[in-house]
Amino acid sequence: MRRTGSLLTLALLLASAAPAADTEAPILENPRLKAEAELYRQYCSACHGVSGRGDGIVAPFLDPRPIDLTLIKQNFEGRFPKYLVTMSVEGRDTVRAHGKSDMPVWGEVFAAELLPDDPDRQARARGKVMKIVDYVESIQR
């Protein structure tokens, strides 16, 4: 748990401070996805890379390595499994095909960022998760 927290802290610091290391820019042209792209950049790009291909600046230090998010739809026979991706991002997907994961439980992270007495705290946290999932869906190859 301590390692995961340290990696999360490192990932967030690097994502906000370092220029993108990817050779391919993310899909940002769609103005409807501007907020979604920013959340992805802030929370996911350090591990998954700016373009989502699993080549973020923290990726070499992770075992297993982050997946290529642009291939999810292809790996599910042309269908984007929104529910499964949402559960994975939220952290409710506890069954790991390849053992332990250092992926943060973003649902808890987002809820913790909000005021504890906010009655809509869980819904707001889920909203962030859904925006990230929408962005990931938009970068499918």
Please write out the topology.
Blueprint: H1 2-17, H2 34-43, H3 45-48, H4 72-75, H5 82-90, H6 106-113, H7 121-138
Note the main attributes of this structure.
141 residues; mainly alpha; 7 helices; 49% helix
What does this structure look like?
The chain has 141 residues and is mainly α. The chain has one domain (2-18, 31-138). 49% of the residues lie in helices and 0% in strands. The protein contains 7 helices and no strands. The chain has helices at 2-17, 34-43, 45-48, 72-75, 82-90, 106-113, 121-138. α2 (34-43) crosses α7. The radius of gyration is 15 Å and the shape is globular. The relative contact order is 0.16. The model is unreliable at 13-23 (pLDDT under 50).
Task: Report the sheet with the most strands, covering strand number, pairing sense and barrel closure.
Answer: none
Strand content: under 5%
Classification by helices and strands: mainly alpha
Uncertain residue ranges: 13-23
In brief, what are we looking at here?
This protein has 141 residues and is mainly α.
